[in-house]
Design a protein that fits this description.
The chain is mainly β. It contains no helices and eight strands.
Length: about 80
């Protein structure tokens, strides 16, 4: 696990953390996870549970990516994904 970025300690006594990674801005209590289930409050610090873990990978034609279509046609791209909502 790695300490996450983009959070702030809201209530020092109760150990409540506000996650700032997405617009949901979850309030995460001690030993709980946020809505996405990939960040956990451990001892008043937020940790990423998926750091450096890839859940899927593959090769896709670059034509599926509209922004790259004009200059990279007929090439493949290496695509990765991770858990989380």
């Amino acid at each position: 696990m790695k300490e996450a970025l983009f959070y702030e300690l809201i209530d020092k006594d109760r150990g409540i953390i506000k996650c700032l990674l997405c617009p949901k801005e979850c309030l995460i209590k001690k030993d709980q996870v946020g809505f996405c289930r990939v960040r956990k409050n451990i001892d008043k610090q937020l940790y990423s549970l998926i750091y450096s873990k890839v859940s899927s990978y593959g090769m896709d034609p670059i034509e599926k990516k509209k922004t790259a279509l004009s200059f990279l046609s007929r090439n493949n791209g290496f695509i990765t994904g991770h858990n989380g909502l």
